[in-house]
Amino acid sequence: MGTTGTPTDITQGSRTRGGVGESTLRPDGILKVTGEFAYASDMWHEDMLWGQILRSTVAHAEIVSIDTSEALAQPGVYAVLTYDDLPTDVRHYGLEIQDTPVLAHGKVRHHGEPVAIVAADHPETARRAAAKIKVEYRELPVVTDESSAIAPDAPLIHESRTDLPQGPPTSSGPGGTPIKGHVPHPNILHRQPIIRGDAEEAAGRADFIVRGEYTFGMQDQAFLGPESGLAVPAEDGGVDLYIATQWLHSDLRQIAPVLGLPEDKVRMTLSGVGGAFGGREDLSMQIHACLLALRTGKPVKIVYNRFESFFGHVHRHPAKLFYEHGATKDGKLTHLKARIVLDGGAYASASPAVVGNAASLGAGPYVVDDVDIEALALYTNNPPCGAMRGFGAVQACFAYEAQMDKLADKVGMDRVEFRRLNAMEQGSLMPTGQPVDSPAPVAELLRRVKAMPLPPERQWESSEGADVRQLPGGLSNTTHGEGVVRGVGYAVGIKNVGFSEGFDDYSTARVRMEVAGGEPVVTVHTAMAEVGQGGVTVHAQIARTELGVTQVTIQPADTQVGSAGSTSASRQTYVTGGAVKNACELVREQVLEIGRRKFGTYHPAWATAELRLEGGKVVTDGGEVLAGLTDVLEGECVEVEEEWRHRPTEPFDLRTGQGFGHVQYSFAAHRAVVEVDTELGLVKVIELACAQDVGKALNPLSVVGQIQGGTIQGLGVAVMEEILVDPKTAKVRNPSFTDYLIPTILDTPTIPVDVLELADHHAPYGLRGVGEAPTLSSTPAVLAAIRDATGLELNRTPVRPEHLTETETCWTSPKN
Q: Are both 298 and 375 inside the same structural domain?
């Protein structure tokens, strides 16, 4: 209608398309698959220098001397910096504990620790100059595991540690502050008990008890885009940093104090990110690039090669897990005792939060009233470990799911039915005492995944002979079916969504609506890091749904808008999506108010009806069009920037672990079908079926992609992925994709996905975080299937051929 016409009905063709619930295409998708997308490593600046980092060649040593004179004398070298050249007294950084030096001082604590940085006019010049820096080390004994970490004569990784007082146990302080005796040794980074009921007394009621000791290997995030950043000095004395990261504002908070600059003079812009999975949550070269740029007065670019990338970011914590479960004759769980020891490496990173997750989720998605769990992280001289997809819940799931199979066999029940009998549901209590107050369809997920048709037997057989691509060993042609045995395994897991334990988890969105080119357009600006998860797609979908426009522009993420938090913890669609939805709702109210002011006299519905924006128009709930948005917004621009928070959480009690620690839980179940060449120990995963509750699929195609991607990362750590660290020297043995293997398309099985949508009324649109849950249960499902095929008790990841042929038995524990 015009400004005075009679209201008309909105037609189906004029409704807004590309909104919530549709599988809209990614705006960056075509660019990425055609190789045209600009990643951080593609950045370029006129008169740019190249940065290089010199890293320690030993894992634990005193630094006796550093001689940079020969490096500085090289033609084309503009700067060489060490710890003594740092511009302020703030020389450490960290996500939770500021224990990581910008450059090593006095000693190095792990293999590959940054010692000096170089800027030169060519990357090869920078590399050669770094190689000419002479560092004299006096090596020290290494700490590599729990026994060496807490031995009476153990070297202290951080001698001057003061963050956790020692002494007799006392009750926790306000807000969960540290308590005396909570950490019994300085080489224990963090510790979290979870105690509910009386596990010792309940064990006496058990008819069956099973125990297990499990080992989880160190996994790398293995993102394909290496770490890269470009720092450009500014005329105002500040610096502009273009960086591939997961959390712009966390980086800013750590960078600015080291540079001695106010935060508004460190301007950060997200550059193209080639994957993250937790490995970009900590700083890598951000401070180093800025230091060199400010020292030389020139732009400085740093790009890690793959070898350096293995040393330049944290990894998934390796773990030792000790579990005891009991059950009655009718299959009901009686109790759980567990001890989870995570290796945090040389620096804290996100280890305290990982410990909290491992402890609070350590019982799995099961009802068990009597629980005694202890989780802790160690300081060692191994590589630092921190955030990775699944964040502490992955290691625990591997252990408790192996236990469920053992206990089901002891009781004499079907393994899936045993799980379903003990599955939690909405209203169940977590071991932390927190009620599960949204759908928890654990039994239904297991039922669905078990009901999926199994793949046909002996798929490799054909009239033309064996198709070796379908067999263990693949194109290496090691078998034509001889000695190949099929196995089937199941697993289910529970993962929290969002930041936990009282962390102020919020996001900010700025939304602007105006007329451009004769049509209404919306611009959305957040600091969310798009690392491949598809957040930019979802934000546009939300804006279309809430504001009824087709044209939505997503501005590049930077620090000129408020924090969006980290792209981790499966939180961005929930929290930043919630912020975008909230800002759009506020914009909509202002637009409707403008409409009422301009056109309210033309129709009573402006004052009485429930109005919405649809198809570029103002529409009543009955479908009548009251005005076009171009008319309403003529000469107007509406902009809103607002923070949005989910409901608060609280810290876990440091003695009992009780508390409302998590805002939401997500659940996924897997069935793995494998075929194993029992003679050679080769495994072919032929199917990994998954059922997952996602609350609401805002973009169904992206949801399935996230589930399949998480499933493959779980497969990788089940059968191939592990960073190997020499236990005598703490040196990394395999820092390359030649020796650290990740699944390729040839390793990827069929992954059928069954998506449930049971809304969580606490969350925007009822959604549930998706990305991490499938990473949990895929690993134990694959291990269960291999056990089913071989009859071996395989208590470690990854499983290697020598474990299956029993030519190396050190990883296989005796059966109970």
A: no
